[in-house]
Amino acid sequence: MAIQLNDRDHLIFKLIDEHEVLLEKHISWFIAGEEKPVLIRDRLRKLFYLDYLLCHRHGSKLPWWTTPTKPLVYMLSPLTRTIAGAPESDDSLDNEFQRHHLEVANLRMLYLVAQKDGQISAFQWTTCKQNKKTETGLDAKVEFKNGSTTTKVGLVNNLALDQASIAKLTESLASEAIDSLLLISRDDLAQKALQQLVAQAGGELAKRALFSTHQELYKDGIVATRWQSVSGAGAATVKPEVAYIGTMAQPIAV
Fold first, then answer.
1. How crowded is residue 189: how many other Cβ atoms within 10 Å of its Cβ?
2. pLDDT at site 239
3. What is the DSSP string of 231-246?
4. Smallest Cα–Cα separation from 183: which of 219, 240, 124, 140?
5. Above 60 in pLDDT, residue 244?
């Protein structure tokens, strides 16, 4: 049975091509923007049944996943890659590859939650595809307004603990014109090791790097969370005098 592909279908394809793999909730938030997330489960299932999408349960337990069953992951099928002109991805079925890209997509969704809750406005997200990531060390670049102040940050998910990665980020502070780097780790031990490495590097990187774990972000929100400086002291990604004051939305059960 053939269907007429609509603009939303092509947007879904574009988003999955951008992020490599996505969950249903990611797609719903990305399509909705500032509005209420849309219900697109039936459409995703239909696109899967008609071979436009690949769908399977992620192969391992994800610490931030809150339901007993493993999440359904959506990827582009060879048919859709041809339609969209997207390159093939040999790594898309690898658990660690999927986990990394799903975590990056979660960060984008948390920013959209913050915008919907009035914490930030004029949110813009740029995914760093593999070539750009290799060049800069960044997974994404984010720009948003907090009051009248525009903030530009670079996001780094689970940075490799080596000097080459640190040097690349130091260069990116200038080349990518970002105000700060948000370095997100999978647990406290990894975060402390990263803070020590950045402290040793010193310079602008040590001054402008902020640290958190995925669990903290999912608990408190990407804006309201207590980010840490390289020394472990608390820091904020927005100016306190204009930061959102109110009841934070409940954690996202992604």
1. 10
2. 52
3. TS-EE-SS-GGGS--S
4. 140
5. no
